[in-house]
Write a structure and sequence with these properties.
mainly alpha; 70 residues; 3 helices; elongated
């Protein structure tokens, strides 16, 4: 993740609102930010599979997306 991507995600998930709170008190915001980053990366991987292999790409993309529910 680049610094710019981190910065955008930091504000998108509103983790910036707890920036001056002790870390032990902002677990929810940190977890939300991490989950959002994982979801975005998972979707990027799924799209890369779809693009890379026109025959089996959709199958592998669906496997990647289904990990969200596990």
């Amino acid at each position: 993740m680049t610094w710019d991507e981190y910065n955008k995600l930091f504000h998108k998930t509103q983790a910036n609102l707890v920036a001056f709170v002790p870390l032990m008190q902002c677990d929810t915001a940190v977890i939300k930010m991490i989950e959002e980053a994982v979801a975005e990366e998972r979707e990027a991987c799924a799209k890369a599979c779809e693009k890379a292999d026109r025959y089996r790409g959709e199958y592998f993309a669906q496997l990647i997306r289904s990990r969200r529910e596990q």
